[in-house]
Specification:
This protein is of the alpha+beta class and 144 residues long. It has one helix spanning 2-23; strands at 30-33, 43-49, 53-61, 89-92, 98-103, 107-113, 118-119, 131-134, 142-143. Helices cover 15% and strands 31% of the residues. The strands form two sheets. A five-stranded antiparallel beta sheet has the order 1-3-2-4-7, with no helix packed on it. It has a four-stranded mixed beta sheet with strand order 8-5-6-9, with no helix packed on it. A hairpin with a 3-residue loop joins strand 2 and strand 3.
């Protein structure tokens, strides 16, 4: 009987711990990785330096309301630094306009990158980028 309770409590503890870890992940519908897969319709890459150089992190998935907690993953200058407010250039590898925003929740000044184009140096969000989204109104964005 005593052994069964220990096993049951371990299961509950593991489940609760897993819930806490999942609950602490950055809220988003995008995932960070080193590369974009061919089958992802929404993919973009942030670079630490201008000219698409230095460390990079690729994001797949639709809108990303906050870049909190994500770091540059690839080798190079900036590896391990946070992506939020540290990105100097970006590449849009999707069929839709990509808007990068100064503030979280797709707000504030923005840069707009057309499909399959590169922003060698972000303008309105240079080292001040907090979120991004696809196919949104971009009337006030700097357009590459």
């Amino acid at each position: 009987m005593r052994l069964s309770r220990k096993i049951a409590s371990l299961g509950i503890t593991a489940t609760a711990t897993a819930g806490l870890v999942v609950g602490m992940a950055p809220p988003s519908q995008a995932a960070a990785s080193l590369y974009c897969d061919d089958y992802d319709p929404y993919c973009m890459i942030f670079y630490y330096n201008s000219g698409t150089s230095g460390s990079r992190t690729a994001f797949v998935g639709f809108d990303h309301y906050s870049l909190n907690g994500y770091k540059f993953l690839h080798d190079g200058a900036g590896k391990g630094q946070y992506v939020k407010n540290n990105s100097a250039s970006a590449v849009n590898l999707s069929d839709y306009d990509l808007n990068i925003y100064f503030n979280s929740n797709l707000a504030g000044a923005c840069d707009s990158i057309p499909p399959y184009k590169t922003a060698g140096r972000l303008v309105k969000t240079y080292n001040n980028n907090a979120s991004f989204g696809y196919g949104r109104y971009n009337g006030d964005c700097y357009k590459f």
